[in-house]
Amino acid sequence: MATYIFRIDDLVVAKLSNRDNIAQNLYRGGGYMSEAEGLFRRASGVGTASLHEAAKRRGALPWSLKPLSPQMAVAGPAFTVRSPLGDNLWLHRALEQAAAGDILVVDAGNGSGFGYWGEVMARAALARGIAGLVLSGGVRDSARLIELGLPTFCLSVAIQGTGKNFAGDGALGEPVRFGDVLVRQNDLIVGDADGLFTIPIAEAPAVIAEAERREIEESAIFARLAAGELTLDIYGLRNGEPKS
Description:
Largest sheet: 8 strands, mixed
Radius of gyration: 19 Å
Order of helices and strands: HHHEEHEHEHEEEEEEHH
CATH superfamily of one domain: Ribonuclease E inhibitor RraA/RraA-like
Mean pLDDT: 87
Helix content: 25-40%
Number of strands: 10
CATH architecture of one domain: 3-Layer(bba) Sandwich
């Protein structure tokens, strides 16, 4: 899965340190985010299903949000956007305000009939170091988006254009809701071929550690399966309480 390096500036350090001690030991003046980089790299090294289970089955964004390509994967902090239905002006504004390494997380309502995002905006995002896009709406220029490689998770591919209403009701940095899940500014976002996971940044170190432990345990289970054991026995499903 992809990993990212995050330049330090006052904005990025403030965003992380306000929620947790992840940025506590980082140095300023154009250095690199050693601890944050390590956190996001670790998150990208485990599957979203493992993270969801490690978080006690919290944090799964709706299954309908799919990557344009199963090879697309991303991990990083959320930059939240609320966009009016059928209007992408707030996405353009987000491209100006988001920091390198941010993932744009856009609530466009059920905007699957509109193409909010295409090649022009993807190229703009890549030039600014944006790490990815999560959008409850459609995109267009899908073949070019896959070639460009910016991790893009959306509801649909749709060519219908969008408006740009300067009086439209949108926002940057406010909490956005996807199904039962509320995503706040700077929450951890992880996406892969299976879907999307989110957790508040303050909880991320513990959840990632638990997910890593689960995947180590699964590796041992794979060896037992290869040796001929059955899942009924490994998980205690014949009688009594199933093993967690």
